[in-house]
Amino acid sequence: MKRIKLNKIIKKIFFKHGLSNNHASICASALINAELVGAPTHGLSRLKMYCDRIKKKVINPKPKIKIKKISSSITQIDANNSIGFVAADIGIKQAIINAKKTGLGLVGIKNSGHYGLSGYYAEQAVKKNLIVFCFTNAPPAIAPHGARKSLFGTNPICFGTPTSSKVPFILDTSVSMINRGKIRVAAKIGKKIPKGVALDKNGQPTIDAKKALDGVQLPIAGFRGSGLAWMVDILSGVITGGNHGGKVKDPFDDFTGPQNVGHLFFVMKTNLFINDYRKRIKENILRVKNLPKLKGVKDILYPGESKYLRHKSNNNKKIKISTIVENDIKKLLI
């Protein structure tokens, strides 16, 4: 389906579920962006979930979002259980405003929900010639090192910076071996997951996606990945007033209440210490790209390059929609 037509349909669905036209537009853009950059697990496959949570009244379609100025650089946002896309969009834009004024912008958000891809918000700051960190926590999926029960989410770490070209450097990665969305999709279509990415509820390795969802996902780099997940839980949950320590509710399976996800955006100008950042970042990237390459490697890509190329390639193509998602869309339009 063509992107413009699909965007209108998704906006219509969110508007039908009570969101304002502006908020529906924000959500549609974020979901379609995920499809364009090649991350469908964070795209249209989640549309029904968001709508289900609105119907169950655990997402507020008409939130009264409170923005509290703590200082010229720091802002706190109470999202009033809004859909995560809206809370994050307001948050990153406020962080950008703060950073443009003072050099540093810090925004903490509570009472939000799942906001999709962190890189989507990082890119907004990078386009304004700013460096950015984005943190958000998630439902239990990873066990603390040494434990058998999951507690931390797959808690992504995201960093973005402008470069000397139009292609931004954006590292957006979860701290699990595989993102939870891929496991959910595998469970839905009866596909096996790779070895070494999850344990079942008894602590045994599994390639069964459904058993993995009931068990534990493995972090990257063992105890180091577990530590990073903990760090993000503190930065996005503890410090903001959001849920933390395993209290974030699963958006697909737990409708007992709002998620109260926390987000933290930290944005800074590139010229805080030097005036030739573009020159220095260009030099930094070229040093890496000019290294001797492994056999078969044509180019050493920096984080964000492959997503940029996918987005550019997919932007004028029809977006492929699975039969499952297509059926979800038809039902949501009724």
Tell me what the structure shows.
The protein has 334 residues and is an alpha+beta fold. Helices cover 40% and strands 14% of the residues. The protein is built from eleven helices and nine strands. The chain has a seven-stranded mixed β-sheet with strand order 1-2-3-9-4-5-6, sandwiched between helices. Strands 7-8 form a two-stranded antiparallel ribbon. The longest helix has 19 residues. The chain is globular. The relative contact order is 0.16. The mean pLDDT is 96.
CA-based shape: globular
Q: What Rg, in angstroms, do the CA atoms define? A: 20 Å
Specify the number of helices. Answer: 11
Counting helices, strands and paired strands, the structural category is alpha+beta
Quaternary class: single chain
Helix content: 25-40%
| Uncertain residue segments | none
Largest beta-sheet details: 7 strands, mixed
Q: Numbering strands along the chain, what is their spatial order in the largest sheet?
A: 1-2-3-9-4-5-6
Distance between the termini: 19 Å
% residues in beta strands: 5-15%
Strand segment tally = 9
H and E string: HHHEEHEHEEEHEHEHEHHH
Mean pLDDT: 96
